[in-house]
Amino acid sequence: MSGNAGLEHLIPIVNKLQDVFASLGVPLSLDLPQIAVVGSQSAGKSSVLENFVGRDFLPRGSGIVTRRPLVLQLIYSRTEYAEFVHTKGKKFTDFNLVRKEIEDETDRVTGSNKGISNIPINLRVYSPNVLNLTLIDLPGMTKVPVGDQPPDIEQQIRNMLMEFIEKESCLILAVSPANTDLANSDALKIAKEVDPQGLRTIGVITKLDLMDDGTDARDILENRLLPLRRGYIGVVNRSQRDIEGRKDIRAALAAERKFFLSHPSYRHMADRLGTPYLQKVLNQQLTNHIRDTLPALRNKLQTQLLSMEKEVEEYKNFRPDDPARKTKAMMQMISQFNTDFERDIEGSGAHVSTEDLSGGAKINRLFHERFPFELVKMESDERELRREIGITITNIHGIRTGLFTPDMAFENIVKKQIQRLKEPSLQCVDLVVTELASVVRKCTEKMNRYPRLREETERIVSTRIREQEQVTKEQIKQLIDIQLSYMNTNHEDFIGFANAQQKSENTNKRKLGNQVIRKGWLSLHNVSFIKGGSKDFWFVLTAESLSWYKDEEEKDKKYMLPLEGLKIRDLESGLFSRHTIFALFNADNRNVYKDYKQLELSAQSQDDVDSWKASFLRAGVYPERKNVDGENSKDDYASMDPQLERQVETIRNLVDSYLKIVHKTQRDLVPKTIMYLIISN
């Protein structure tokens, strides 16, 4: 036995606490003092634990064998047997059956497809060959999935290890093989992340007998290379051939002892190496660690006990018809509704859905993708705008021939364009209100047991939203009226009259370079081997072109379409179509792709389509606009004299510059107004 005989009873006390959690089938939620064994898959963790017991009892094989934490409780006893907490008192004297039970119990929780779980298996081993000791055997770290292992297995195992070792009350037994560079040790690397000072890490160096000739691990074992507060202990395990040949563990321990005594580099410290010494050190370290952490653990348990006793007292005289109880239950549900509503709008790190966009995310898309797109759709067609400017200038001059470009033409055209911003701005409010109503319905689902409460909650909240909707619409109309009330031609971003005369149409286009704007899957409809069919391609949109590939690896390029001269329009979906279809076409009626006049595309949802449209907008592909006045407008524009044409060009540049300022302000203020008056309110 160890030298801490007076404190030996501490380990069984902690064992009982661990058994309680195991019998409940839940992960350990208390920070119990314990030793966690970490290492890579081939480091020799299983052999170290089996050497402690003197029996072969752990599952072996390729890939992940330990898929649940194994809480191994070693208890000194005159007789030798094992028992599991989940088998309720059944004693195992055949340790081959112990191995089978570990495998069966692992499969029961995780299935047989190499999945892992953090719910521990508790195994007690009673033996005259052991010291009182408790260790938690954790899955070995791996880099590359093998066979049918899940692709994210490295991250899954890492998360489970961190769950145990990041607790300050956990000692870390970091097992590293001596025949690899210690600087690359997975066990020491992960231990250093949670224990940078090395205060609670115990190093175990295995495979000392497999090192290259002329090399040794003396610097490591003497704690000089990568120092740890609790030092390193070297062990020699059985080889794979020894295990397959069923070499007796007692004979292996004798061979280990002989190796250390006969090796010139380890002879002087042979009494501080080997499995028996490691077991003795761990017994002492765990006992001292429990003694050190016990006061804090006791305080935590007492706090939890008082809290639970208070709850028990609260339900002692419980009556279902108690009005106070009903009121409390109702207030709790209302409070939960508030929390859920806020979480759905604001987002939350702890409860993020992976299935669907939250209400807040959808509203964000409305603000930054759908709304800017609708604003641009309201802009006049270039030909139509020039025609209007020409008519306005001609009407202002009246019977006289104008020598100068009239200011009033600029003001009239700008006011007409600003008026058109009202419709998409009010539509944005409607879309946000619709989304909020959906969030309210979703958040009241937990009240299904109380239909009247749910109905009343939805009515009150919806009424409040509708009231604020009207206030917001009035405010947005006022924003438009404010823009109409005064043309600020001294704005710092305004081009000014002198610059407008010199500015050519071509220099007005914003240069983005050929940066990638968006990537994603789209269905191509009218270009297909089967009439009426569609095929999915991986599309890449840049500032200058649209390319599509066979898949996201972007190796097999199908085509690259220049964006110059392209427009975008909505198409009506078929009666049974689930997709929203839009088309790219040339404004001058040229073929877009081979013999096709337009390229018909669709995405999985309306949200995705809106997002793609916003991306095309950034690339300079604008929506189609209808010409309401027919062919006469072309004749009017064609009959302009050169002087009038120059005046039209000047006003056109001034209007374009001023509307950019107005659009920028509107894109900024409308979402802010909606946030302040509806959502935050």
From TrEMBL:
Keywords: Endocytosis, GTP-binding, Hydrolase, Microtubule, Motor protein, Nucleotide-binding. GO terms for cellular component: cytoplasm; microtubule; plasma membrane; presynapse. Residues 648-681 form the GED domain. InterPro entries: Dynamin (IPR022812), Dynamin_GTPase (IPR001401), Dynamin_GTPase_CS (IPR019762), Dynamin_N (IPR045063), Dynamin_stalk (IPR000375), G_DYNAMIN_dom (IPR030381), GED (IPR003130), GED_dom (IPR020850). Residues 515-621 form the PH domain. Residues 29-295 form the Dynamin-type G domain. It holds the Pfam family Dynamin_N. GO terms for molecular function: GTP binding; GTPase activity; microtubule binding. It catalyses: GTP + H2O = GDP + phosphate + H(+). SUPFAM superfamilies: P-loop containing nucleoside triphosphate hydrolases, PH domain-like. One of its GO terms (biological process) is synaptic vesicle budding from presynaptic endocytic zone membrane. Its EC number is 3.6.5.5. Belongs to the TRAFAC class dynamin-like GTPase superfamily. Dynamin/Fzo/YdjA family. This is dynamin GTPase.
